[in-house]
C-alpha cells in the first residue's frame, strides 16, 4: 500500500492516489495526505486506479475526508475504481455521499 | 529484581575451580576489573554459592571433585530458571567433543587456561550485555503478557455486561438458525431478534466498522433501542431512525454500522427488509426461486436524520419461504491463494440448496470447502429465518390471575391523529402503552396490539387513503400498493383517524372497547362482513384476523367507523407464580 498526492495545475484540487489494499494500515498516511492548512484546496479526488481492495475501515477514512472537506458541502470525487472496489462502495451506497466515477 | 548493570558497573561473579592457585589468579584478575567475586572449590560448593550469592555470571572449571563443572552447570541453570545467568567454562581441554559436551550441559562459552586478562574482560562485558538484553526482553514480555491478560479479563467482564443488555432475544426461536462467534461483539458483528407485540418478529443483523471495544460500545445502544422499541410495538422505520440518530451522535465519523433489518409478520405474510450496507441477502421462495435483497441505503450512523432513508422493500411471503443474510465475513472469506469467496459463490450456494436441506449449513459448507479451513473465521455471522405458521413461534397465551385486578380498571380516552401527522407519526405504540397499564391486558399485549394495528391500518390505508386492497392480490400490485401509499400520504390534506378506547373490569375479567373512525367515505360493509375467512389472495385478512381476536366487530355509519370489543378473563386455576 502506498499513498501519493499531487495537485492539479491550478492548485485547487488535491489528488490522492492509493496503490494496493486500502485498509486500516493506511489510516495515518491517508490522513497525512489531506490534513494540512492549505486554504487553496477546494476539491479532492481519490484516484483508485491502482487500488485493489478496500475494507470497511477504508470506508470510514473516506467519511473522515468528506467531513474534513466540509461534509455535505465538501467536494470529494472518487475516480477510476475497479469493479471490486466499485462493488464495495455501492453496497454501502456511498454514491449518495461522493461523486463516484 | 536486580538493578540494571552496564559495562562500567560491578557484577557479582562466582568462580569455581579446585586448583587453589588457578582460583586465586582468576579471582584477582576479575576483582581488579571492579567486580565482586565469590569462590568455590568444587561443584557442590559452586551450586551452594550460587544459591547464597545470586551471581550474575558464573565461571566454572570443568574437572572438579565431588561434582564436576557440567553437573554444576545443569543445577545452576535449573536454579536460574527464566533469567539468563551466563556460565563460562574454564578449561585447558582442546578436544572438540569435550568442549561440545560443556555447551550441551548448559554452558555458554569457554575460557582457556592460561588466562588472558583482556579476553576475560571482553567476555564478561559481552555476556553482561547479553544478560541485560535478555532481562529487558523478559520484562517487556511480562508487561505484554500482563496487558493481554488484563485485556482478556476486561473483555470477559464487558461481555457479561454486554450479554445482559444485548441478549440474544428470541434467536432461539424454532424458525431461526444462525452462526456467530460467541465473542463476535468484539469483532463488530451484531445479531438481535425480538418478538413483536403483534406476533411477528424483528431481526437486526449488522457489522460495525472496526474491532474490539469501540465496536462493542456502539453495539450497546443499538441493542437497547432495538429491543426496547420493538417490544413497545414500533415499526422498523421508527426503530431504524432512532438507531441511526443515536450512532450518528455518539460515534466518531469513521465508525458506522452496516446492517439489515428484517420485519416479519406471520399472520399477514408480510416481510419488510431494510438493507444498509450489508452484502445482498436472499429470499428463498419455496420452489427454489431466489430473490436478492440488495443494500439500498447508507449504513447506520453515516448521515444525519434529515438525509437518512427508512424506505423498506416489502414482500409477500408464505410458509416455507426463507430469508438469509450474512455479514461481509462470508463474501470476504479468503482461500489460501488470497481469493475471496465473493457474492457470486454465495448466491450459487444459496440457489443450489435442495428444498429439504438447510441453506445455512449449505452456505457454511461451501465457505469451508472454498477456504479449506477447518474452522470458520471468527468474524462471520450468518442467519436464516423461516416463514412459519404464527402458532409455531408464538408463546402460549399467558393467563391472568386475580391479582391482575390492581391497576386502572375503568377508564376511557380519545386520541385523534390529523393532517400531515398521519404521514409522520405512528400512534400505535402510544395507544398500546395506555392499554398496557391494565395488568389483565398486559399479558395479551400481542393481541391488543394486533387489534389496534389492524383497525389503524384499515382506517388509514382504505378509509383515508382510499387504497383498494384488491391490488395486494398480485406481487406487482403489492409493490404498487405501497408505492401509492407513500405518494398519497404526502398529500393527505386534512384527513383524520380517531381512536376511542374504553375499558372496564368486572369480577371475572375485563372488556376493552375500541372505536376507530376515519374521515374517509367508508365502504359497503354488509358485503364484507359476510366473509369470515379470507379467500385466496391477500385482501380481507386483516378483517378476518380482527374477527378471530375480538368478541364482536361492528361497522357503523358509512363504514368509516368500526367498533371492536375485546374481552379478557381471569383464569381461576392459575397459580401466583405466573403473575409479574
Largest sheet of chain B: 5 strands, parallel
Which class of chain A in CATH terms? Alpha Beta
What is the radius of gyration of chain B computed over CA atoms, rounded to a whole number of angstroms? 39 Å
Number of contiguous helices of chain B: 17
Class of secondary structure makeup of chain A: alpha/beta
Overall shape of chain A: it is: globular
- Structural class computed from helices and strand pairing of chain B: alpha+beta
Q: Give the tally of structural domains of chain B.
A: 3
- Poorly predicted segments of chain B: 1-7, 396-402, 530-539, 573-580
Number of strands of chain B: 20
How many domains, in number, for the residues of chain A? 1
Radius of gyration of chain A: 12 Å
Domain STAS (chain A): 3-101
Pfam family, one (chain A): STAS
InterPro entries (chain A): STAS_dom, STAS_dom_sf
Protein name (chain A): Anti-sigma factor antagonist
Can you walk through the features of this model?
The complex is a heterodimer of chains A (101) and B (580). Helices cover 30% and strands 31% of the residues of chain A. With 101 residues, chain A is α/β, with parallel strands linked by helices. Chain A has one domain (2-100): STAS domain (Transcription Regulator spoIIAA). The model of chain A has no long low-confidence stretch (mean pLDDT 89). Chain B has three domains: 12-138, Response regulator (Rossmann fold), CATH 3.40.50; 166-393, PPM-type phosphatase domain (Phosphatase 2c, domain 1, 4-Layer Sandwich), CATH 3.60.40; 402-578, Histidine kinase-like ATPase, C-terminal domain (Heat Shock Protein 90). In chain B, 38% of the residues lie in helices and 21% in strands. Chain B has helices at residues 20-32, 43-53, 69-80, 96-104, 117-165, 212-231, 236-250, 342-351, 359-371, 390-393, 421-424, 428-435, 439-442, 445-464, 475-490, 525-529, 541-549, and strands at 12-16, 36-40, 57-61, 87-91, 109-112, 176-179, 189-195, 201-208, 257-265, 270-276, 281-284, 290-293, 313-316, 322-326, 382-386, 411-418, 496-505, 509-518, 552-556, 561-569. In chain B, strand 1 (12-16), helix 1 (20-32) and strand 2 (36-40) form a beta-alpha-beta unit. Residues 1-7, 396-402, 530-539 and 573-580 of chain B have low confidence and may be disordered.
Amino acid at each position: 500500500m502506498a499513498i501519493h498526492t499531487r495537485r492539479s495545475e491550478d492548485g485547487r484540487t488535491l489528488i490522492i492516489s492509493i496503490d494496493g489494499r486500502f485498509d486500516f494500515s493506511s489510516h495515518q498516511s491517508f490522513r497525512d495526505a489531506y490534513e494540512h492548512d492549505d486554504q487553496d484546496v477546494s476539491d479532492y479526488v481519490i484516484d483508485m486506479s491502482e487500488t485493489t481492495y478496500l475494507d470497511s475501515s477504508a470506508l470510514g477514512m473516506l467519511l473522515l475526508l468528506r467531513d474534513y472537506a466540509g461534509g455535505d458541502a465538501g467536494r470529494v470525487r472518487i475516480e477510476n475504481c475497479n469493479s471490486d472496489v466499485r462493488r464495495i462502495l455501492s453496497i454501502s451506497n456511498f454514491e449518495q455521499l461522493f461523486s463516484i466515477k | 529484581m536486580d538493578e540494571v548493570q552496564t559495562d562500567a558497573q560491578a557484577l557479582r561473579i562466582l568462580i569455581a575451580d579446585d586448583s587453589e592457585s588457578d582460583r586465586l589468579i582468576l579471582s584477582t584478575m576479575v576483582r581488579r576489573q571492579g567486580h565482586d567475586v565469590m569462590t568455590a572449590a568444587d561443584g557442590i560448593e559452586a551450586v551452594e554459592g550460587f544459591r547464597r550469592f545470586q551471581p550474575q555470571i558464573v565461571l566454572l572449571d570443568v574437572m572438579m571433585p565431588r561434582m564436576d563443572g557440567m553437573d554444576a552447570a545443569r543445577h545452576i541453570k535449573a536454579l536460574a530458571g527464566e533469567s539468563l545467568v551466563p556460565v563460562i567454562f574454564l578449561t585447558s581441554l582442546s578436544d572438540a567433543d569435550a568442549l561440545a559436551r560443556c555447551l550441551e550441559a548448559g554452558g555458554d562459552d569457554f575460557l582457556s587456561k592460561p588466562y588472558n586478562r583482556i579476553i576475560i574482560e571482553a567476555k564478561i562485558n559481552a555476556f553482561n550485555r547479553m544478560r541485560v538484553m535478555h532481562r529487558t526482553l523478559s520484562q517487556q514480555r511480562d508487561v505484554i503478557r500482563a496487558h493481554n491478560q488484563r485485556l482478556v479479563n476486561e473483555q470477559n467482564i464487558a461481555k457479561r455486561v454486554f450479554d445482559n443488555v444485548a441478549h440474544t432475544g428470541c434467536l432461539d426461536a424454532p424458525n431461526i438458525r444462525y452462526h456467530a462467534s460467541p465473542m463476535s461483539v468484539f469483532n463488530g458483528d451484531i445479531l438481535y431478534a425480538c418478538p413483536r407485540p403483534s406476533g411477528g418478529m424483528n431481526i437486526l443483523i449488522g457489522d460495525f466498522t472496526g474491532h474490539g471495544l469501540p465496536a462493542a460500545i456502539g453495539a450497546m445502544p443499538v441493542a437497547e433501542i432495538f429491543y426496547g422499541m420493538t417490544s413497545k410495538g414500533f415499526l422498523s422505520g421508527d426503530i431504524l431512525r432512532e438507531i441511526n440518530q443515536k450512532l450518528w451522535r455518539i460515534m466518531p465519523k469513521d465508525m458506522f454500522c452496516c446492517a439489515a433489518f428484517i420485519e416479519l409478520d406471520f399472520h399477514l405474510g408480510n416481510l419488510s427488509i431494510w438493507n444498509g450496507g450489508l452484502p445482498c441477502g436472499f429470499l428463498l421462495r419455496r420452489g427454489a426461486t431466489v430473490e436478492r435483497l440488495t443494500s439500498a441505503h447508507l449504513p447506520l450512523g453515516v448521515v444525519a436524520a434529515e438525509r437518512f432513508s427508512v424506505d423498506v422493500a416489502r414482500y409477500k411471503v408464505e410458509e416455507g419461504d426463507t430469508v438469509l443474510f450474512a455479514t461481509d465475513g462470508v463474501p470476504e472469506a479468503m482461500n489460501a491463494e488470497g481469493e475471496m469467496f465473493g457474492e457470486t459463490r454465495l448466491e450459487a450456494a444459496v440457489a443450489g440448496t435442495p428444498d429439504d436441506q438447510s441453506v445455512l449449513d449449505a452456505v457454511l459448507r461451501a465457505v469451508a470447502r472454498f477456504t479449506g479451513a477447518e474452522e470458520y473465521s471468527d468474524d462471520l455471522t450468518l442467519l436464516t429465518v423461516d416463514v412459519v405458521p404464527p402458532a409455531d413461534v408464538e408463546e402460549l397465551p399467558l393467563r391472568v390471575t386475580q391479582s391482575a385486578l390492581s391497576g386502572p380498571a375503568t377508564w376511557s380516552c380519545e386520541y385523534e391523529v390529523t393532517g400531515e401527522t398521519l404521514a409522520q407519526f405512528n400512534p400505535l405504540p402510544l395507544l398500546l402503552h395506555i392499554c398496557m397499564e391494565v395488568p389483565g391486558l398486559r399479558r395479551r399485549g400481542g393481541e391488543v396490539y394486533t387489534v389496534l394495528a389492524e383497525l389503524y391500518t384499515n382506517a388509514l390505508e382504505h378509509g383515508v387513503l382510499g387504497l383498494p386492497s384488491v391490488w395486494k392480490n398480485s406481487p406487482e400490485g403489492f409493490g404498487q400498493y405501497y408505492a401509492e401509499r407513500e405518494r398519497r400520504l404526502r398529500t393527505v390534506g386534512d384527513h383524520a383517524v380517531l381512536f376511542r378506547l374504553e375499558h372496564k373490569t368486572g369480577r371475572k375479567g375485563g372488556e376493552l372497547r375500541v372505536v376507530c373512525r376515519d374521515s374517509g367515505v367508508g365502504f359497503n360493509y354488509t358485503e364484507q362482513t359476510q366473509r369470515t375467512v379470507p379467500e385466496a389472495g391477500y385482501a380481507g385478512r386483516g378483517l378476518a384476523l380482527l374477527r378471530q381476536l375480538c368478541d364482536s366487530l361492528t361497522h357503523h355509519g358509512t363504514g368509516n367507523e368500526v367498533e371492536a370489543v375485546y374481552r379478557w378473563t381471569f383464569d381461576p386455576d392459575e397459580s401466583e407464580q405466573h403473575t409479574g
